[in-house]
Amino acid sequence: MNEEEALARLIALAGTSAPDAALLRAVVEEASELGARRALARLGLADEAARDDVSDLRQLLGAWRDAKKSAWAAVVDWAVRGTLALLVVGLAMRLGFPGLLK
Question: pTM score, two decimals?
Answer without folding.
Answer: 0.53
